[in-house]
Amino acid sequence: MKKIRRSIIAAVTIAACSSMLPAEGFAGNGCGGASWYALRSKTASGERMNPAILTAAHRSLAFGTKVKVTNRNNGRTVVVRINDRGPFIRGRVIDLSRAAAQNIGMVSSGTAKVCYQIVS
């Protein structure tokens, strides 16, 4: 009986704690800061980073995932493919290639508030 009670308490504790974690790590949608980068080094997926292609870095989405990113300041959108990991700066949810940043009008500012959602 005590083992069952402990198991129930453990399960309830895990459920309660998981609801306090940021939804970004579990859901395909999110909002936050974005920045852009134009390096030519290898990405975490192993491919060479090409700033002229519509790609992005995200902390947890699977490589190859297509994501629609919307600039909250001007409403412009772009669809990118996740091929890298990052960003590693608090408050940022996605790093875009230069081409993607140009499409949504954030190259000159360097950063923007965006929302993203998985499209496939």
TrEMBL record:
<protein>
    <recommendedName>
        <fullName>Endolytic peptidoglycan transglycosylase RlpA</fullName>
        <ecNumber>4.2.2.-</ecNumber>
    </recommendedName>
</protein>
<comment type="function">
    <text>Lytic transglycosylase with a strong preference for naked glycan strands that lack stem peptides.</text>
</comment>
<dbReference type="InterPro" id="IPR009009">
    <property type="entry name" value="RlpA-like_DPBB"/>
</dbReference>
<keyword id="KW-0449">Lipoprotein</keyword>
<keyword id="KW-1003">Cell membrane</keyword>
<dbReference type="InterPro" id="IPR034718">
    <property type="entry name" value="RlpA"/>
</dbReference>
<dbReference type="Pfam" id="PF03330">
    <property type="entry name" value="DPBB_1"/>
</dbReference>
<keyword id="KW-0564">Palmitate</keyword>
<dbReference type="InterPro" id="IPR012997">
    <property type="entry name" value="RplA"/>
</dbReference>
<feature type="signal peptide">
    <location>
        <begin position="1"/>
        <end position="23"/>
    </location>
</feature>
<keyword id="KW-0472">Membrane</keyword>
<keyword id="KW-0732">Signal</keyword>
<keyword id="KW-0961">Cell wall biogenesis/degradation</keyword>
<dbReference type="InterPro" id="IPR036908">
    <property type="entry name" value="RlpA-like_sf"/>
</dbReference>
<feature type="domain" description="RlpA-like protein double-psi beta-barrel">
    <location>
        <begin position="31"/>
        <end position="116"/>
    </location>
</feature>
<keyword id="KW-0456">Lyase</keyword>
<comment type="similarity">
    <text>Belongs to the RlpA family.</text>
</comment>
